[in-house]
């Protein structure tokens, strides 16, 4: 049984996100972090990790479908890059901030939404909750409110982030270790080919190399090569 104080807070949240739940406890679970339940064993609802798992899959499906429909001219590799940017931790966190979720999340003492993915995880959990409460079309309609404008603003011919940032974000999304870069300096005589860098993705068994006049350029080239290998295999 949800007490009236919590129920009133949930009604306000429903107004903000534009969804009314038949099963209020689903929404309550979606905004509850594990840390709160670790301290409040008497709570009758669950934390959001299972809903997050479900919502993550729905968002990936939704974004994939929208990109497929919107960009008929793009091949798989570029579509995969665009999808990675739209389901990234930073993007989901930004959606959560737009919804004002960081102030609505139920956390344990000492837990914070700063410099982590908690807010973005709650976005995923809410999507999972909407799906369970009222079905896939309702979940897609909910996502339309936040994604359609962002998808229409995409310019696939322009890359907004450097390859190292793209690679790091993609690996974080996959739950993989971050890449390591090993540089070899061939000396000034090599000029534009002075540095050779090997980019290693340990969890995926991938190695890629890049050459440049300085280490920074060589690392970016190596990261781009690693991205191309990743997108080729997906």
Annotation keywords:
234 residues, mainly alpha, elongated, single chain, 3-stranded antiparallel beta sheet, 10 helices
Would you kindly provide a written description of the structure presented here, covering whatever features stand out?
This protein has 234 residues and is mainly alpha-helical. It has ten helices and three strands. A three-stranded antiparallel beta sheet has the order 1-2-3. A hairpin with a 4-residue loop joins strand 2 (195-201) and strand 3. The longest helix is centred in the N-terminal third of the chain and has 22 residues, at 49-70. It is elongated and about 75 Å long. The mean pLDDT is 91.
Q: For the largest beta sheet, what order do the strands appear in spatially?
A: 1-2-3
Strand content: 5-15%
Average pLDDT taken over every residue: 91
Helix content: 55-70%
Main sheet characteristics: 3 strands, antiparallel
Quaternary organization: single chain
Q: Round the Cα radius of gyration to an integer and report it.
A: 21 Å
Give the helix tally.
10
Low-pLDDT runs: none
Distance linking N and C termini: 45 Å
The sequence of SSEs as H and E is HHHHHHHHHEEEH
**Helix/strand/pairing category:** mainly alpha
Strand segment count? 3
Gross geometry: elongated
